[in-house]
Design brief:
The chain is an alpha/beta fold and 282 residues long. Helix content is 45%, strand content 14%. The strands form two sheets. Strands 3, 4, 5, 6, 7 and 8 form a six-stranded mixed sheet that branches. It has a two-stranded parallel sheet with strand order 1-2.
């Protein structure tokens, strides 16, 4: 099982982190196996799949100033947690540290790393790495006070690109996020994910986040670009239909990011358009 492999890696880390696992309504015996093999891990059961919101519940149980997220098909490299925590200790205005993702098996850099390390977002001199306006939760350590300041992950988005709204709100509140090349996280992509469902959710949530936070001209431009990039299939059609169906609540809760944040987001549009890591496939 993928979770058991990841737990084995995390349990062997020299930092000996406290490991909390949120169960999203699993029925395949994963939790029972995890409890048996890793009694030191704290397991929290749910009868339903809460998506990314399960992370909110876990963060609410953490007593440390920082939390390192980790998906069930990912694990942190020895020493990476220490580097990330030391970085947050040293910079009070920093909300998160995102690491270099290595794809397993093989240990090659994920294509997203080039985007993270080459981020064009303007950064203050004190920032200990390239400034980010988008993170990958499973490869990031966050300051818990900043996380709660913006309300954590949105229950509306549920799962799929849910980090984008969180990071826009962090930036709008004056927090910084950065990439660190010396913080290494491993990803052995799950073989049991429903790729079409993930694509549907990703498209829907990207559109919702765009409409929630981008100024109107940018929202319209980004919507056109996103729609033009989509495969012409049933999954894309369902995603668009669900995005449109959510417009009433989106418009009620919409508030655009400040101009300085919007400037950074516009700088990211061209790298994202060229990205090989952001294709709507599956």
């Amino acid at each position: 099982m993928e979770l058991l492999r990841s737990l084995g890696m995390l349990a062997s880390l020299p930092e000996r982190p406290q490991i909390l696992v949120g169960d999203n309504g699993s029925t395949d015996g994963t939790c029972e196996a995890a409890a048996s093999r890793f009694p030191q891990v704290r397991l929290f059961y749910s009868e339903q799949n809460l998506g990314a919101v399960a992370r909110n519940d876990i963060v609410g149980r953490v007593c440390t100033p920082y939390v390192a997220f980790c998906d069930d098909d990912m694990w942190w490299d020895p020493g990476a947690l220490s580097v990330a925590a030391d970085t947050l200790d040293a910079h009070e205005g920093l909300a998160s540290v995102t690491g270099r993702i290595m794809v397993e098996p093989g240990g090659v850099e994920d294509p997203i790393v080039a985007e993270l390390s080459g981020s064009p977002v303007p950064a203050p001199d004190w920032l200990p790495g390239p400034a980010l306006l988008g993170i990958l939760a499973g490869a990031s350590m966050l300051r818990i006070s900043a996380f709660w300041e913006v309300g954590g992950f949105s229950p509306r988005l549920w799962l799929g690109g849910e980090e984008e709204l969180l990071t826009m709100d962090l930036a709008a509140h004056g927090w910084w996020m950065c990439y660190r090349h010396d913080v290494v996280v491993h990803h052995a992509a799950s073989l049991i994910r429903d790729s079409r469902e993930r694509r549907r959710l990703g498209i829907r949530n990207t559109l919702w986040t765009t409409w929630l936070r981008r100024p109107l001209p940018s929202a319209l431009r980004r919507t056109r670009a996103i729609v033009a990039s989509l495969p012409r299939d049933l999954t894309s059609a369902r995603a668009l239909a669900q995005a449109v169906a959510g417009l009433p609540w989106v418009l009620r809760e919409r508030h655009a990011v400040p101009p300085e944040v919007e400037y950074g987001l516009r700088l990211l549009e061209e790298p994202q358009r060229r990205s090989v890591a952001r294709r709507y496939i599956g």
